[in-house]
Amino acid sequence: MKLGKMTDREIKNQQIKDTLAKTREKRKTQRCLVFELKLDSSHFNLKTKEALKMMFVEAKWLYNYYLSQEDIFKLDCKIDKVVHKDKDGNDVESELRFLPAKYKSSVYEVLKNSIKALSSTKKKGKKVGKLKFKSQYNSIDLNQYKNTHKIISNNRIKIAGIKQHLKVFGLEQIKPEYEIANAKLLKKASGYYIKLTCFEFIKESIFTNEVKPDVGLDFGIKDSIITSDGKKFKVSIEESERLKKLQRKLAKATKGSNNWYKLKLQVQKEYEHIVNKRNDVANKIVNFLLTNYSTVYFQDEMIQAWHHGIFGKQVQNSCLGRVKAKLKTSPNAIMIERSFPSTKLCLNCGALNILTLADRTYKCDCGYEEDRDIKAAKTILHAGRCKTNYIPTERRDFKPVENKTSASFDLSRGVSYGSVKQEAPAFRQG
User: Fold this and answer.
1) pLDDT at 60 over 90
2) Across-strand partners of 200?
3) Is 256 exposed, middle or buried, given 0-12, 13-18 or 19+ CB atoms closer than 10 A?
4) Radius of gyration (Cα) for the chain, nearest Å?
């Protein structure tokens, strides 16, 4: 279609498509950097404090208002008044005075995307729940640099809807050559943060001839992460004694009192501190793996289900889920099918042997013997190299006795035969 025969709207849409296509091509030559920086609240004036507070309050009102409507996709995101519940549960109409139109649109898009994601998951045959009304709204999308947010100097930033230029700790980390994209304004127990997404062009490494080995990972309970070359990572961050003490005080306090709110804030801050420590450990582990190994192979373990097992508390205190989520987004990491028998498979003869949780050493009738977790990591590494990402449907017929004790695995072809059962259900007891 020629531009001369297109309407103004069609021309604009085409320009947007062309721009997005160019951006996608450019991103292939760039790497993404994310900085979460704290706003210096000591410099806030009274108007800034009120504006920041009410932005998140009004975003909550708007989100809940949209969610209460029958057909969300037919709504207009440019509204000035909403009906919401007050602290006594009564309907109240309030004007959105502190929430700019750009932020209203972002709240609307967040809700639409959540509904689309649930719908897509449901179409795949999976059970999904319903979106819930929010008691707090803690994240506002800032989608356009120089429109919703703009860096003024090496320590100050301008955010739409706030007149004051805000001082930011660590803003000097953003180098002039970085291309700044979208951002998020965050509200946490410890204060307000801005999460900036930046891009920089990938520089060719001077160590281009360096050959790095591949590695397989096994997620476990005793040693949380084990590599195929024998390295073990403890990724558990226990709840602090201070948190337990604060929780006991909060339980005894009168709900709704000033003391109760103070204790609740202290508990939230302590939780945030623990979460930050777990994120830090996860980042360091992932960075170590991606820096020292060429390709990382890991299994699609159902870590969420482990939370409800006999070792649930240990898993909840770990950062296994964070490590897995970060690896899933890396181009240098490959995930193996969940049903692959990494623990049961013998690397020497290919037999499938049944192990209990008490068996910490893998022993096979062929004489092969090794640490259970290291052996599992080696098996995952081998499966990844053989591109065994799924279990074939064609299976060999077994005699009753053979089927009960073991199965076979052809190591040369990377294809398994026999009954294969995933390991994860062992952690769902209790």
Assistant:
1) yes
2) 31
3) exposed
4) 27
Alpha-carbon torsion (193, 198, 204, 208), positive or negative: positive
State whether residue 376 is helix, strand or coil.
helix
Contact 374, 226 (CB under 8 A): yes
Residue 415: its pLDDT value, please? 37
The answer to whether 267 and 243 have CB atoms below 8 angstroms apart is yes
Label residue 30 exposed, middle or buried (CB < 10 Å: 0-12, 13-18, 19+). middle
Relative orientation angle of helices 320-328 and 258-292, to the nearest 10 degrees: 50
Query: If we measure between CA atoms, which residue out of 329, 231, 208, 336 comes closest to residue 285?
Result: 231
Task: Answer whether 323's CB lies under 8 Å from 225's CB.
Answer: yes
Strands 333-336 and 296-299: parallel
> Average pLDDT, stretch 67-73?
82
pLDDT score, position 331: 82
- Per-residue pLDDT reduced to its tens digit, 142-200: 988 989 999 998 899 999 999 999 999 999 999 988 999 899 999 999 999 999 999 98
Bridge partners for 215 per DSSP: 296
End-to-end CA distance of the chain: 64
Measured CA to CA, the distance from residue 53 to residue 37 in angstroms comes to 18
